[in-house]
TrEMBL record, chains A, B:
Its EC number is 1.13.11.24. It comes from the Bacteria. This is Quercetin 2,3-dioxygenase. The lineage of its organism: Bacteria, Bacillati, Actinomycetota, Actinomycetes, Kitasatosporales. It comes from Streptomyces hundungensis. It holds the Pfam family Cupin_2.
Amino acid sequence: MTIEYATAHRRASHIPAEAGTPYFIEKGDGDRAHLFGDLITIYAGGEQTENAFNFFTVEGPKGNLIPAHVHADTYEVFYVTAGAVRLFVEDLHGNQQEKLLTPGDFGFVPKNCPHAYRMERHHSQVVGVAAGPGGTFERFFETLGAPTDQHGLPRDAFVPAPEKFATVPQQYDVRFLRDHQWKTG
Amino acid sequence: MTIEYATAHRRASHIPAEAGTPYFIEKGDGDRAHLFGDLITIYAGGEQTENAFNFFTVEGPKGNLIPAHVHADTYEVFYVTAGAVRLFVEDLHGNQQEKLLTPGDFGFVPKNCPHAYRMERHHSQVVGVAAGPGGTFERFFETLGAPTDQHGLPRDAFVPAPEKFATVPQQYDVRFLRDHQWKTG
């Protein structure tokens, strides 16, 4: 049985429009978006949880570096379910760490801690939760990138228009750190 | 590199005692507990997220029925990463659904929706997030069950003393529905 709903985010979504409704979503059928070479799939967001938390996956090819960034009000989980993902994180005192995460491994990034990551195997997948007292920010990916009905990775990388970088990240509690350097390597 | 911390919950935990600290936990090395035949592993809790959310896994053998229960203030994610798990859920109007979830499938249970589940393959694993505006309740499992340093499923099922059922669930926003019946089968 597959139910699709018209929502604020999609003409046809498996996430119910009405909060308080239980639901199931089969693998890959969440709200999907492309951003650069990655596929982001949202399974639950703030509208489902009274803004307590969200739940999404990020899938990507090997070599896709996500630049250093920071969230002022958002805690973030990285839980790897396929492939290998190298997570870089800096604590509030400036101490840096990196670790290669393989399936079942977990990384936690508190608010205000600069971080970055790189998929180090093809077909890597990370489960993410990104939320804090100020809410959840799962629609960042499709607002900077582009919603899609396709399954699978983008055939061609989706590169946002430059002007979007000036406005979208700050609306979703993302601040890129252009000159940040990792000294952990 | 492995760092262990003394915390309020464990003499040696991979979850830092001090909030705001980034951390990594390798597969299986979170705070572990046994409850009946299951192994519950906490990777993050309310103390890490200003009570926004938690992140844990539940692993179990085939056939382990978790009785119907409900949370007044907690939204719950079931994301299957191994095996197969049948999730039963009833909406706020009394309509019941069930679905067999296999790896990559997702189920969402809003607050006040009765639900139950059963592992239908050995070595099943569910990733869980259970939180709401009132907080997070990840220590339910070890308070009703028992903390453990072991990896892997309990050798013998851990059965809580009967009197614990009278006090522990209500402290963690769990209410068991003893006479609940599923008519979906």
